[in-house]
Amino acid sequence: MSQDWTFLTKFIIVGEQSVGKSAILIRLTEQRFLYNTEATIGVEFGSHLLTLDNGDRIKIQVWDTAGSEAFRSITRSYYRGAAGALLVFSLVHRPSFLHIQEWLDDVREHAEESVSIVLVGNMADLALDPSSSEAKEDGAGAQSQDATAAASSSSPKPSKSAAVNTVKARDSKAKQPRARQVTREEAEQFAKKEGLIYVETSAKTGQNIEEAFTRAAKEVHRKFLAAQAQQGQDSGNQDGSAAAGSSMLRRNAGGAPGTGAASGSGSSASASGRGIDLTSRGDGTKSGCCVIV
C-alpha cells in the first residue's frame, strides 16, 4: 500500500500516569500490545497514516507525553502546534478522570487555538459493569484487602519474600477485570459540556484506538478546509502551505510537500523522536505544524 500522504499534522496524547498513553501509541503505530511499559520520561514519538472517507490520507505525528508532574514543564513545550489531542483517563481509576479538567486546561492553553480534542476512556477491557456479580465481588474484595492492610499495620514486619509475593499479587490483581469507576454517562456529560468527542478504548484489544485518532483527524481536516475556504483560496495556500490559524500541512498537487515540510513518504511505523521544525505561514509567523527534519 502506498505510504504517500495528502496532509501532515501533529497530535499529542496527554493524561495522568498509568492510564495507558504509551500503550495506545504502540497499538496505533505497531498494532501490538505492550504488557509491561515503563513510565514515559519526557515524550515519546510515533507516526501513522489515516485514510478519510473522501480518500485523503493524513499522516499524524503523535507525541506521547509523560503524565508525571515532574515533567509537566517539559511536556507542555510539546503541546505547541498540536492540531489534535487525545485526553486519556482510565475507566477503572477514578482519580485519573477527576484530574481531566487540569489536562484539558493545559492543552487549550498551550496547543493550537482550534485544537480538536478527543476524551478517551481507556482500559475498557478491564472495566466491569458495576451491577455485575464480578464487579460486586471485586468491590467486596477491595474492602477486605483494606481491612487486612489496616489490621496488619500493627503486626510484625513481614519477611522480604512475603513482601515480594504481596507486590506480585497486587500487580497481578491490577491487570484483572474490575469494577468500572467512571460511567459512560458522566464521561459523555463532561465531553458534551466541554465540546469534546468521547470514545472508550482498549489498548490491549485494539478497541476503538484508530477510531479515536480518526475522529480527531476528521475534525482537524474539516477545520483546515474551512479555514482555506474562508481565505478565498489565495495564492499563499494554493502552493500547499498551511492555512493561517491551522496546524495542518497539505501536499502540492505534484506530490511535493508545502513550504517547510519534509520530503519523503509517510510511515505507519513507530519512529524515534528527532528534531522538529515549524512550517512558515505566508505572514511570516509559525504555524506550529510539526515536521520531521
Number of strands: 11
CATH superfamily of the largest domain: P-loop containing nucleotide triphosphate hydrolases
- The fraction of residues in strands falls at 15-25%
**How far apart are the first and last residues' alpha carbons, in Å?**
24 Å
Mean pLDDT: 74
Which fold name corresponds to the CATH topology of the largest domain? Rossmann fold
Biased composition (Low complexity): 140-163, 227-242, 264-275
Region (Disordered): 130-187, 227-287
Family: Belongs to the small GTPase superfamily. Rab family.
GO molecular function: GTP binding; GTPase activity
Task: Describe the protein's architecture and organization.
With 293 residues, this protein is an alpha/beta fold. 35% of the residues lie in helices and 22% in strands. The strands form 3 sheets. Strands 1, 2, 3, 4, 5, 8 and 9 form a 7-stranded mixed sheet that branches. A two-stranded parallel ribbon has the order 6-7. The radius of gyration is 22 Å and the shape is globular. Residues 139-150, 167-174 and 259-293 have low confidence and may be disordered. GO terms for molecular function: GTP binding; GTPase activity.
List the helices and strands and how they pair.
Layout: E1 7-15, H1 21-30, E2 43-51, E3 57-65, H2 72-76, E4 84-90, H3 94-98, H4 100-110, E5 116-122, E6 127-128, H5 133-152, H6 160-174, E7 178-179, H7 184-194, E8 197-200, H8 209-230, H9 235-238, E9 248-250, E10 276-280, E11 286-292
Parallel strand pairs: 1-3, 1-4, 4-5, 5-8, 6-7
Antiparallel strand pairs: 1-9, 2-3, 10-11
Pfam family, one: Ras
GO molecular function: GTP binding; GTPase activity
Region (Disordered): 130-187, 227-287
